[in-house]
Write the structure tokens for this entry.
Amino acid sequence: MAAEAVRVGVDVGGTFTDFSCVVSHGRLFAFKLPSTPEDPSQAVLHGVDMLVREYGVTPAAINVFAHGTTVATNAVLERKGARLGLLTTAGFRDVLEIGRQMRRQMYSVRLDPETPVFLAPGRFRKGVRERIGPDGAVIEPLDEADAVAQVAALVEDGIGALAVCLLFSFANPAHERRIAALVAERWPTLPVSLSSMVDPAFREYERTVVTAFDAYIKPAVDAYLARLADGLIQVGVTAPLQIMQSRGGLAGAVTARQRPVRLFLSGPAGGVIGAQNEGRAVGFDDLITVDIGGTSCDIALVSGAKPLIRQEGQIDGYTLRVPMVDVNAIGAGGGSIAWIDAAGGLRVGPHSAGSVPGPACYGRGGGEATVTDASVVLGLIDPGYFVGGKVALDPGRAQAAIRDRVAAPLSMSVEAAAFGIHRVLNAQMAEGIRLVSIKQGFDPRDFALLGLGGAGPLHVCALAEELGMTRCLVPRHPGVLSASGLLAAPVEHEVAAAFSRPLDGLELSAVREALTALDAEAAALMAVEQVDPAAVVIGYAADACYVGQGYTIEVPLDLTQPDPLARLYQDFLALHDRIYGHAVDGPIRLVNLRAVHRAGGGGATGKAEIATGSPVKGTRSVLVAGDGTRVMATVYDRARMPTGLRFEGPAIVEQSDTTTWVAPGWTARTLDTGALLLERPVLMEVTP
Amino acid sequence: MIRDRANTLDPITVEVVRNKLDGIANEMQSTLFRSSFSPIVKEGLDASASLFTIEGETLAQAIAIPIHLATLIPVVRTFLREFPPATMAEGDVYVMNDPYLGGTHLPDIALVMPVFHDGAPIALTAAMTHHQDVGGMAPGSVPTNATEIYQEGIRIPPLKFHDRGMPNDTLMKLLRLNVRVPDSFIGDLNAQVAACSAGARRLRELATKHGSTALRAIFANLLDRSEEMTRQAIAMIPDGTYRYHDFLDNDGIDLDTPIRIEVAVTVDGEAVRVDFAGTSGQVRGPFNCVPSGAHAAVYFAVHALTDPDIPTNGGCFRPISVTTPEGSLVNPVEPAPVNARTATIKRIAGCVIGALRAAIPGRAPADAAGEMLLLAFGGPRPDGSRYVVGELIASGSGASDGKDGVDVIETDGTNCMNLPIEALEMDAPIRVLRTELRAGSGGAGQWRGGLGLSREYQVLHGDVVLTHRGERHVHPARGVLGGGPGALAVSRIHRMGGAVEEIKSKTVTRLGPGDRLEIHTAGGGGYGDPATRDPEQVERDQADRKIGTSAAAE
């Protein structure tokens, strides 16, 4: 085994650190270790140790080491970033705090601030005398002495990082760069983020926020990745450490440390790439993924074998303009609490029992009736085989909670109440999935549903029926999909710049010139990665909108076309029609240009070994209607299911990290990749 | 507790249907937002979608700004009178916008579609959009100097937009000729049809699954439930009659006459009555507000102060009654102009919150400035082309028990984004010289009021027409329990020659190259005695420049 190359994907989550390893001959093994939140690199190194001791991997044989991390997100959630100084154009130091003036809670009269003021309260924000105009012309030269004095005052106040965001720096970065040089001369160890490098696009508040977050998390991310890289070298791993970025591409740790703001969705991006790869391997290019955990349900779309990317996302409730996979969270999960409202009606969520105290059946002191308690009562979850038997569930407590909190107040049986809780939750989640699809201009019926997380595969049949979908897919290891996605991701560098020009009369040469500059930047980033330059694929895109509109659409820009700009216009109209339902033949404007350099990706997923023995574990009675109707479901052991095994619902497929419910009317089949495909006839009536 | 008919229904099916109704309303609104042309919809979120029972009660509503809350109720009532269910046909779509027949202001056009199942109408879907232009004396159809509704645009009585699926060509031709941008106007109306159709399709699916009789029983139950929950929440508020009054600066025509808004909110067991007696008579300028706007403001305030988690439907409105004296600001007699009603609705919401504060002091904040400063600049660019840019600038919110007010934030009825400085400067030869929090503008208190904004513009080129529509230049946002008032709004023009002109809240004037406009929006009221403020917070305020005086404002 020592001679074989090994690719390792490691995704660090809040509770578990997941490993997915593929050996060159195609064998896959995956495992989970408890995370070590005080220093997440410890769990990663423990895992490497396990690879060596239990799986016989030689560290030197590891040729890919890809990593998804929550360190950037945690630095924000726990407010453990740097004490930040923010330097702006004089007169505009409050842009960060003023924001866009909208409130999120429409009916709240006792408001909270909507902007991330915590990054740099007023005393840590300074203005510097300078001014650049909208065309990039210098209106007032940079007052260098003033700049140095302002930074000196901030350093005096103890800042650990500096963000610089001057007006119109995207049109002319000279003043920001000069400030960086002045700072480097005097305070060489002070981390600095320039808005003209982090996010060179117009709208000063959005640019300031991204730049400030970048600087805020830079020391924490830098320290963590340096520690991990050192640790890996010490245990003999020579492969370069690669980090998953929010838009689904890997970057070398050296680059990732310089652009930490691109790491907020590092983990979820791995999951979406993993889903895309699972789908592609079985010929499904259009997928909706539904990852149901304890407190939330994450929904993402893959269309045409590409994950949907959006140009801005959310971190801790703040909108952040940085490209990321389009993952939408709704507040519904296994821990969602069922309750009776003041008028005696049944409600499910949005409050959750979380993992502490958790559902009543966990026996950790939770008395609320949750969705997981309902799953136990219905017979969908085996209380003796939850998380592979590691957590013993108490069915008595599940029964009691549902009886006391729901069934008795509603004067119904415990079974009817449990079934009702599932029906309400499924209706909520189906509406959420429908809305996410419709907002992108997609009809969910054209997609397959991919069930992820501990509870996703339990609900996919019901959700698919609600949404008129006919195919569901459950990966072999849905619990470590983020880790396996790391192994399927390309190395990718994206560089964008403002390019505000009407398309009418635009010379292609001007576009080419701007793209050449972006290419040079992206190529420089790529050169640091250890990839074959010949393998690099370059793609371009433009953010475009109708003249007068404020919202843009990302449109691919294909320079190999005979008339690339005419083609871009046609593609803009088609995309506008898909997303907004109409497209008029009016003048459009480019806003930003983007170059994406990409290499590799889509590697073989590997295959887990199939354990010997009968795949059938037994049978279990499952409640399938509110009137108490039960069916006898065959219970399968996922680890023992051979390729090509075919069976009808009702059936339950158990594995350590999830349980799949194959509802009556559905047919299940194990595919070559190990994934489980669930199908139902296209014209089947929706079950009541 | 719940009425008898509830007991015959399966509570789980009721809750499943409720989730679906919310989902349907959201799907309609998403369709509406996606397919509309108007920037006011795309960026100001000024559109909403609703489902109604065939009796005309709201079943579910997807709204992005509270000013739309319940505003379609009088519209639907008018339609039901004009086109009773017995005369409705599948494929009908009804249209109207007239404020004096139940609408809001003329740019808001409502479309309503009956939903049929088994040959009978079982519900209505509705969509309302603020259209970019509906004709009248000024582009955009919100002329600040209108003195009668005829100047504000075309008035549409309840008519058939589609008749049994056939578009009403006569009406289309008439409308096209009366608006400035007919293509996008019709496009936005078609987006409304698309939203209503999407809702109707899914409601029919629900009726097929549950049967229309059962479905209508579920509708009734959902309304009863929200009514019950609202009544219980109101019952927790101490009984009594609570009064409050506040002022709008002027009506834009008579600049020295403040407009009084007075409310008496009576909490009587499980019911709330709001009486506007004492409110100013209707005004010459366009700040009049037909009763639907007053209702929206009252429902917003009661909903926000009771339990915002109660599912919003017509049941929430049943325990609330509103009396608007005829001929007053809140129930004007035609042809009074009404286009600038937004400022009025915001102030009414503030008054209802102010009145209820006496009953539930912990839950209601001090007065928000509630100033939504509207600025519009129009002029030539150096290349000869012309621009018009509009800005909406927020003010400070009121402090509340345990929380300082928020600086420069949208409150109550509206929720719009501001315009980035870089977007303004790229579009128009205007330079923003500074944009800062307005130090010292928040009302003092144990909890400090939110700050307003200070900004200075300079005209770089050409002859510019400036529209300035402010509030809180005369009467401040008041503090409570010893808290101080927020600072008044101040706006000035600095002419090139050195002359300084103070703006009396509202004006339409001209600016030349080099002229500067300086604006300072108002602060929110403070909460509690300032002497009891935590000294550490005072220190922090000092360090963060939240208190003290800003250089130029006063």
